[in-house]
Amino acid sequence: MHAKQKNNLQAILFDLDGVLYIGEHIIDGAAEAVREVQQLGYHIAGVTNTTTQPRRIIAKKLQSMGIEIPESSIYTPAALANRLIGNKKAALFVRDSLHEDFQDIQQSLSHPDYVVMGDIGGEGYPPETLRTIFQMVMDGAQVLALHKNRFWQKPDGLHLDLGVFVAAIEYATGKDAVILGKPSTQFFHAICKELNTLPEHALMIGDDIESDIGGAQNSGLKTALVQTGKYREAFVKQISQQQGIKADLVIPGIADLPDALSLL
Ligand SMILES: [Mg+2]
After folding, report:
1. What pLDDT score was predicted for residue 1?
2. Could you give the percent of the chain with pLDDT greater than 90?
3. Which CATH architecture describes the domain 11-49+182-263?
4. How far, in Å, from the CA of 211 to the mean position of ligand 1?
5. 21 Cα to the center of ligand 1, angstroms
6. Ligand 1 centroid to 150 CA: how many Å?
7. Hey, what CATH class is 78-179 in?
8. What residues does each domain of the chain span?
């Protein structure tokens, strides 16, 4: 049993895939490490960019692996959009499977306060839908984008992704969307606010040097890179040099986190 470490951390944010599990397989020591840092008194949160699964399903998966992160402590772009909307009105453009993460909000297509843009399937946003959103934003609505990826790979080749359509609305209206998802600074800051902690008192642990580590570092959080999941030494070296990203901690895997906390 460790004593509460002499650092000024209050919260630990875990990326999920590549840190706690890989696909359907738990990473050695993940459940124990999460339990241990919880017992040390840190607030914990799961942070993932997934926009295809509701939080309920993610929580279920963690639970089935014995990892104790409750649904309310899992932050996805959709969950955060939901919280930002609060009791305001929103027009939703997301796939059906995500609707349950928005069940408490007031949906409206007439004069919404927010427009949520997510993946809607097919080849993306048809021109008439873009015009509807354009009019809503000109009318004062704020766009919350679940991510801003440029393109994605399907078996038949590359396809335009959500970011293209978000950029179209931004270009036409001259108004920036709020991008929800790593590496967005707005995303990290909103999560810290939800956790009642300042960014400098939070640690982000991830396997993605750009999205997890770079994003958190730019947002003022402490960072820990694990050498599991998508970690590749040569790629990390290259990106770190190009973008000036440096994790505060580099550890072989999540099992090493509790001991490593004393190094911060
Ligand atoms: Mg990951």
Report:
1. 43
2. 83
3. 3-Layer(aba) Sandwich (3.40)
4. 9
5. 9
6. 19
7. alpha beta
8. 11-49+182-263, 78-179
